[in-house]
Amino acid sequence: MVTEGKQCSERVSHDDWGHTHQCPRGAKVIRNGKLYCKIHDPEYIAGKEAERTAKFDAEWAAKKATWELQNTAIRACKKINPENPQAVAESIEGLVEAVEAYEDTLNLLIFQHPDDKILATQMYQVIKVLAKVREVK
């Protein structure tokens, strides 16, 4: 092998004063006419940087999605009750349960009164709201 017995050409720091020396590791590859060990191989470094960037981007996207979800929830709660949005947030689970119970009652009433337009309209609204609550992205 061409690199056998040869040393990496990269300069590395060996103190806090900026003094450098040639990397003592054995060369493994030749890039652009220079010898490099695995650690200083420009392609290896680029690959590691791409991995770090991809990991950071994924973590950042997850954080951003969480912040957007929280901001959306806060805006919605403030829209419903600007004086006490926390009360809205704390009552959401109970509200959904109440609407789900109302859905069953409306189904029964519509079955008993199929020509009632008001019941039909209310049922449509309940179905729309529950569909949005149960929506999966």
Largest sheet: 2 strands, antiparallel
Gyration radius, rounded: 32 Å
Low-confidence stretches: none
| Tally of helical segments | 3
Number of strands: 4
Shape: elongated
| SS content category | mainly alpha
Mean pLDDT: 89
Describe this structure in words.
- This protein has 137 residues and is mainly α.
- It has three domains: 1-40, no CATH class; 41-80; 87-137.
- 61% of the residues lie in helices and 9% in strands.
- The protein has three helices and four strands; from the N terminus they run ββββααα.
- The chain has helices at residues 42-80, 85-112, 117-133, and strands spanning 11-13, 20-22, 29-31, 34-36.
- Strands 1-2 form a two-stranded antiparallel sheet.
- Helix 1 crosses helix 2 (85-112) and helix 2 packs across helix 3.
- The longest helix is centred in the middle third of the chain and has 39 residues, at 42-80.
- It is elongated and about 90 Å long.
What key phrases describe this protein's structure?
single chain, 137 residues, mainly alpha, 3 domains, two-stranded antiparallel ribbon, 3 helices, 4 strands, 9% strand, elongated
Question: Summary?
Answer:
This protein is mainly alpha-helical and 137 residues long.
